[in-house]
Structure formats: C-alpha cells, structure tokens
Amino acid sequence: MTTIGIIGAGHIGSQLASKAVQLGYDVVISNSRGPESLAELAAELGPKARAATPAEAAAAGEFVVVTVPLKNIGDIPVEPLAGKIVVDTNNYYWERDGRIPALDNGEATTSGMLQEHLPASKVAKAFNHIMSTQIATDGTPAGTPDRRALATASDYPEAAELVERLYDEFGFDTVNIGPLSESWRVERDRPAYGARQNAAELEDNLARAPRTI
Fold first, then answer.
1. Residue 119 CB neighbours (<10 A)
2. pLDDT in tens, 126-153
3. What percent of the chain has pLDDT over 70?
4. Could you tell me whether strands 85-88 and 122-125 are parallel, antiparallel, or unpaired per DSSP bridges?
5. Are 51 and 68 in contact (CB under 8 A)?
6. Are 175 and 151 in contact (CB under 8 A)?
7. 3-state secondary structure 94-139
8. 175: exposed, middle or buried (C-beta count within 10 Å: 0-12, 13-18, 19+)?
9. What is the rounded CA–CA span in Å between residue 138 and residue 7?
10. Which of 21, 26, 46, 211 would staple 3 via disulfide (CB 3.0–4.6 Å)?
C-alpha cells in the first residue's frame, strides 16, 4: 500500500494521518520536536503508522503532506522531496507568521512560496479550507447528492490528479482552481474558506474571491 509522509503533526496532520490509516495507507508522521514526542499519537494510529523525523518522513513517503506554519516552511527538507508530489495545507496567518508583504499585496501565494522552496518537487494545495475536525467526518461516497467539495491547485497536472483521488477517497468532490498562482482564491478570509459547499457552490465562491483582503 502507498506510504504517505506527513511533515507536521498538529490538528490537520494528525487528522489526515488518522483518516489515511483508516483507508489502508501506511503513514510516516513527523514534527519539529522529534519522533519521541509523537509516541502517543503513533500508538493511537496503530501499526500502519510510525513516528519519524521530517527528513525521514520526506524520504519514506511516496507523496508527502506538508502541514506546518507558513513561517517554518524554510525548515522543510528539500533533497528528499525532489521529484515527489507535495501536498500543501498551508494558510497565511499574519498574527502567527508575521507580515509577509508579497502575500499582503497579492503578489504571491502560500503554496507558491513552498514551491519556490522545493523547486524539484510538485506542490499541490489541498485541505486548507476545511476545519481539521471535519476532514475525517464530512466525507461521503461518490455520487452523494450535495457532496462536499474541496479545491486544489498545482502547476503540475499529475499533482492535482493525485489530490483529486485522495479527496475522493476521503469523501469529497474536487474543484481544480488551476495553477498555484490562482490558489489565493481558497485562502483565508475568502468566500470559499471554511464553508461547507458542494462543487457548484465552491466554484461560485472561488469566482467571487477578492485578490487582496
């Protein structure tokens, strides 16, 4: 079965790990404090999960989820992620991350910043506009009326396609925004952020998003 590396074991990382294990994935999860700090979480996740360092999680994953504060993306290991699809859940919280003028001025996107940090990887935005607690609870089978939809964006079609498959397994429809340069449409404080919406509603909210807040 596919192994998912997860860098970041906070609310989103732990929920993604839990759902992925339920779906049969092997998970290697990490954080900045070291694998010993994740012993309890790894035990809860069971035998299909293990704790590791970020570099080990990056190397082990057939694809890797990065879910760390934006201010810490410079710490993400570069070499072991070369050639891999990297799923980015990040949002810009200036209260936590400090002011970043390029984001404030609408000149950059959070996922674009990670792509710049990982030039040999294929970054796709995902799981950034849903509450972490809903990741494992809001999914429904394909074809369910009014099925919840989530957005993705990537400069690489194969990365967006992987997210679409993952979303479907987790129980969500997908709306592909296009390249990372458009991923701001689903970031914090825009209409699509945090809303429970089907695909048509998500498309409408994406279209209504203002470039700067």
1. 9
2. 999 999 999 999 999 999 999 999 999 9
3. 100
4. parallel
5. no
6. yes
7. HHHHCCCHHHHCCCCCHHHHHHHHCCCCEEEECCCCCCHHHCCCCC
8. buried
9. 23
10. 26
Instruction: Give the pLDDT confidence score for residue 116 in this predicted structure.
Output: 98
**Per-residue pLDDT at 78 exceeds 90:** yes
Per-residue pLDDT, 55: 98
Q: Look at the pTM and tell me if it is higher than 0.90.
A: yes
Integer-rounded Cα radius of gyration of the chain: 16
Question: What does the alpha-carbon distance between residue 11 and residue 9 come to, in Å, rounded to a whole number?
Answer: 7
User: Residue 4: how many CA atoms within 13 Å on its side-chain side?
Assistant: 28
Q: Residue 6: which H helix or E strand, with range? A: strand 3-7
Tokens 């949002």 -> residue: 91
Classified as helix, coil or strand, 3 is strand
d(CA 172, CA 41): 25
Q: Which residue has the tokens 């992620």?
A: 81
Q: Which of 180, 81, 183 is nearest to 129 (CA)?
A: 183
Tokens of 65: 């989820």
Residue 156: per-residue pLDDT? 98
